[in-house]
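quick one before i forget lol
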Amino acid sequence: MSTTPFGLPSAALVEHAVPGRHRSTTRATRSLRVRRSVIACLAAGAAAVSAVTVSTAADARTPMYFGSVAGGYSQASSASGENLANHAYSSFSSKPPVARMITVHAGGSSWRQVANAQPGSALYNDIVRWAQTIKARGGRVMVAFNHEPEAAAGGYRGTAAEFIAAWRHVHSIFDKQGASNVEWTLQMTAYAFRVGSGDARSISRWYPGDSWVDNVGADAYNWNVCGEGSGKYNELSALGAPVLAFARAHHKAASFPEFASNANSTRVQWIRNAHQYFLSNQDVLSAAFYFNRPPTVKANNDCRWSLSTSAEWDAFGDIARDSRFTA
């Protein structure tokens, strides 16, 4: 969630089987009966391959990562009593944190400065250090550069085109270092997927391109009666629908780097509904991290995202205890 402010009001990775090349063995002397038998067998075989392919696609993201965002991670782990995936935030000038997902920014540098960072410069060297460190750790690591960029549109960081150029440059530096274990995760607000292409915040303006993104992420918040999204109650399924549709259309994984609901009498059920929503979409969803931080942003300090009741923690813990999720 954006720190100035908490973002904007917001509301299958399918494996395509490549048919094998079948060498024709039909001879003119074969009977019609034999030919029909061969055709039937081939059809059955194709159906079996198709079934296996669908099953593989459905299981491709199982188990999916589930946990909490840093700043509320320790409480979430302690209160739920479960091992959770962690989503951490940092800058290139700092040491890369150890986490399942890491969102990194370039401090006070604009996107144009990031895009133009050259070998030998402090920023370039920092990015190289990050790439080498994450590569050495091994295992899949979700990495996002500069979360919710559209929320900063028009600010000092720059334009959508400059963000895309910066994203691709950072990606290229990691590639040169051989950091192939990075899953590049674009972290937008869920709102960016709901507005039309004519809106300056639309995902269509900020998307770096299919060759540069592995995972389409969106921060999804049920504001209900707080902050800039006051008066907008949404189930996670409603917030996530356009996000998952975009991911599927581009054959990408999808995730919720941040998701939460403002405290209300129905939050327990909201979490349980989110649980079922995750399960229904594990063909494309790869991770979800609950934003369990206390209010820190002046513009939205009336929002209460942190879980507090035993019933809420039980609903949250049920997701972590589900064998289809992992840390």
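fyi The chain has a mean pLDDT of 85.
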